[in-house]
């Protein structure tokens, strides 16, 4: 434990820099995945065939080995940030889109019909009734996507994408040498802490944006 603390202290600036890069992946990927995933879920919510196709394609993305996908993207977008970013966006789409569809499908039809009877248009029913009621389910999908991104982003280091995976890669490259184990432990634990921090943020967001009646 003492050696681990000493290693953190000696690499603190590098650790913060790597954590910032890792957090950038999580935030940027989740934002893009929300736009695409929620948008796709809304568009196909009432179209069974289109819904199965879209969710099926997003599910296929998750079956592609992460390292293989990162490497395949390198010739297209190059080394560095973009290959991991695109791959992580692909992985984050399914939980968000699936939960969007499930959340909207779970809205009580009687509530929607009541809104229709009050003269609300389709757009008004969607944004004023259906999405607010489906929001807790959608946000759960976003939380899953964020945690998924936090873990898989560790592989970004293998295509010069940076992040906390740098510490794991450095430790593996020097396996058996002094501080190699500490480097791997620090990278792994930092990813876990960062993921839990983001999850805590989403818990706060859920409480702040969900009315007490539908929590």
Summarize the structure.
With 215 residues, the chain is an all-alpha fold. The protein has 9 helices and no strands.
Keywords:
0% strand; MetI-like fold; mainly alpha; single chain
Give the uncertain stretches in residue-range form: none
Beta-strand proportion:
under 5%
In CATH terms, what is the architecture?
A: Orthogonal Bundle
Q: How far is it from the N-terminal to the C-terminal residue, by CA?
A: 41 Å
The string of secondary-structure elements, in order, is HHHHHHHHH
Oligomer: single chain
How many domains make up the 3D coordinates? 1
CATH topology: MetI-like fold
Profile the largest sheet.
none
Model description:
The protein is an all-alpha fold and 215 residues long. The protein has helices at 2-10, 12-44, 48-63, 66-77, 82-105, 109-117, 122-152, 165-173, 180-209. It has a single domain, classed as MetI-like (MetI-like fold, Orthogonal Bundle). It is built from 9 helices and no strands. It is elongated, with a radius of gyration of 21 Å. It starts with a helix and ends in a 6-residue tail after the last helix. The relative contact order is 0.15.
């Amino acid at each position: 434990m003492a050696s681990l603390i000493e290693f953190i202290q000696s690499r603190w600036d590098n650790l913060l820099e790597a954590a910032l890069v890792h957090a950038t992946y999580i935030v940027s990927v989740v934002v893009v995945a929300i736009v695409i995933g929620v948008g796709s879920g809304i568009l196909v919510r009432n179209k069974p065939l289109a819904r199965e196709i879209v969710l099926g394609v997003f599910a296929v993305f998750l079956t592609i080995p992460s390292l293989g996908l990162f490497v395949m993207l390198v010739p297209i977008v190059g080394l560095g940030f973009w290959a991991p970013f695109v791959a992580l966006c692909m992985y984050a789409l399914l939980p968000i889109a699936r939960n969007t569809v499930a959340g909207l499908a779970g809205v009580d039809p009687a509530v929607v019909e009541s809104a229709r009877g009050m003269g609300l248009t389709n757009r008004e029913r969607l944004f004023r009734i259906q999405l607010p009621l489906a929001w807790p389910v959608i946000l759960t999908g976003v939380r899953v996507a964020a945690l998924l991104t936090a873990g898989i982003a560790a592989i970004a280091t293998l295509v010069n994408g940076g992040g906390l995976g740098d510490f794991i890669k450095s430790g593996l490259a020097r396996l058996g040498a002094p501080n190699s184990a500490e480097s791997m432990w620090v990278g792994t634990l930092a990813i876990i802490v960062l993921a839990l921090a983001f999850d805590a943020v989403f818990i706060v967001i859920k409480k702040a944006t969900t009315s007490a009646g539908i929590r």
